[in-house]
Amino acid sequence: MRYILSVAALVLLSACGSAKTTHPAIKETTEVDLLPKFEDFSAHFSADGSKGVFTSLRDANLAHVFVYDSTVAPNVARLDDRLALPPLEGRELLNAVSSTAAWIVMNRITLASGLSQVLVTNFAGSIHATIDLPAGHTVNDISFAKGSDTYFAYVDRLDNARSTKVVKIGSAATSVTLTEVGSFADQERPDLMSANNLLTLSTLGTTGIGSQAVTVRSSDGSGGAWTLLSEGVLSLKTQDVVNPILLTQAGLFLPKTSVTKRIRNKLGTPVAGAAAETVQIIEDIGQIDIFAAALPYSWSAAPYVADEPITISSISGTLDGQFILTSGLDGIGCTAGSRQWPTFKLIRRSDMKVVTFMLARLAPDNVNKWTEVITKLCSVVDNTIPGGVVREVDSTITKGELLSFAGNFFVIAVNSYITIDQEIRLARFKLDWDTGIASEVSITNVSANSRY
Questions:
Q1: Bridge partners for 20 per DSSP
Q2: Alpha carbon of 166 to those of 139, 208, 209, 297: distances in Å?
Q3: Is residue 140 within 8 Å of 161, Cβ to Cβ?
Q4: Considering the domain boundaries, does residue 241 fall inside one?
Q5: Which is nearest to 429 in space by CA: 417, 447, 414, 416?
Q6: Cβ(221)–Cβ(151) below 8 Å
Q7: Alpha carbon distance 80, 65 (integer Å)
Q8: Greater confidence, 284 or 411?
Q9: Host domain of residue 260
Q10: What's the mean pLDDT in 162-177?
Q11: Which of 91, 128, 148, 166 has its CA 20 to 30 A from that of 431?
């Protein structure tokens, strides 16, 4: 809620005729360009970040899926054009792309009939196939299996009834085949992964007040019976029911609201003394027996507790679960006092090392655009910056997705979610875990509505 209020304040300031919002006591500036035709969101990328898909309202506020390809120019194109579909006859919101960007899946609704379909195409748009849903049915969720180009899951909804479907993609030179290999009634929020020739699916039951049943199943993907690995009940508070659950080879993780009591020493001078605070922490789902042995550590142990954020809006991670990324609102205590900022936290699971960071640039730096990954946040938000160096940070970023990790290089997709101005970036950087400093930073503006 505190983040929502801050966003509203930014919108009000922008509406008063200024292109920037400035906090005079803090050397920080956030630019907000009001360009609704370039509102881009719901971005998904290949593991290397070279290709992706996103939804945009740039077509007269009619939602369409666009593809991003860093290897060609122009690097953004409307998917309907590749598929030879009339853009004004349909709208698309949900989308996903496979690990290597071999396949794209999206939900398309025909405006005249209101009928919904799941459309699967290769990245070039040269071949595609659809699953046509009956009248009254809609699609609630679409996602590819992590580590796979072959399987995806979606949620079929009819009124309040929701079912999770798992589909296998097959293809020849000129055709695509879609085969349903799993269907689970009264299940939603699927998270699917493929590892060691095995599909693993986690879902949440659609019934229950104050708690939800989480179920984990596995299959060889051939269309035969699924093996029920485990089933348990999560005692989720109302505000936690919508939180994402991350499925990895190391286990299941989810953000949960908790009351903790500790000194809040946030990257600088401590702010106040020990006090009970309601914050969000990451927990493994202990009720899922199959993963219990794989989680011998505790998320409540230092140093994570000292860095836990106030809220967590998204959680993602590598397939093996060794690195986890959270996005959310945090309190940063520097010599100028505590401030609330949306931040990213990168967690190394082996030793619970946590690095908090934000995207920034030298101010003003309109030519170079976004250039920095700042891990020493007090050097940005504090009013006593050595040498008076000022940086601009985007205080509207609330979602990040960890796409890949290799050789200490991380690739992260970033979404800015301020009303009327939504955009997408990719950040690639090398992280020195000993010093907590990022280097060799490359930030790409995927959206045409870059903030500069």
A1: 31
A2: 13, 24, 26, 32
A3: no
A4: no
A5: 414
A6: yes
A7: 8
A8: 411
A9: 1-32+248-452
A10: 93
A11: 148
With H, G, I as helix, E, B as strand and everything else as coil, classify residue 43: strand
How many residues does the structure list for the chain?
Answer: 452
DSSP code for 146: B
User: Do residues 58 and 90 both lie within one domain?
Assistant: yes
What are 14's two structure tokens? Answer: 């922008």
Residue pair 291/251 in contact (Cβ under 8 Å)? The answer is yes
Across 132-136, 219-223, 327-331, 333-337, least confident range: 333-337
Max avg pLDDT among 142-146, 195-199, 222-226, 272-276? 142-146
Q: Please report whether residue 166 resides in a domain.
A: yes
Which single residue is written with the structure tokens 């039951």? 205
Question: Half-sphere exposure of 107 toward its Cβ, with a 13 Å CA cutoff?
Answer: 20
Tokens of 217: 């199943």
Q: Which residues pair with 120 in a beta bridge?
A: 105, 129
Residue 233 token pair: 């009940």
Of 203, 235, 267, the position where a domain reaches its end is 235
- Show which of 235, 264, 286 is a domain's final residue: 235
Q: Which residue bears the tokens 């010599």?
A: 335
Can you say how many angstroms the Cα of residue 165 is from the centroid of all Cα atoms in its chain? 22
Two tokens at 267? 């990257």
Nearest to 256 by CA among 196, 303, 214: 214
Q: Rounded to the nearest 5°, which phi and psi values hold at 10?
A: -65, -40
207/309 same-domain check? no
Check whether 46 has a pLDDT greater than 90.
yes
- For residue 437, the one-letter residue type is I
H or E segment and range at residue 402? strand 397-406
Taking alpha carbons only, the member of 402, 400, 403 closest to residue 414 is 400
| Dihedral-angle region of residue 347 (phi above 0 means left; psi in -120 to 50 means alpha; beta otherwise) | beta
CATH for 170: 2.130.10.120
- Model pLDDT, residue 372: 86
- CA 99 to CA 404: how far, in whole Å? 10
List, in sequence order, every residue forming a beta bridge with 252; answer none if it has no partner: 247
> What sign does the CA torsion over 415, 420, 421, 423 have?
positive
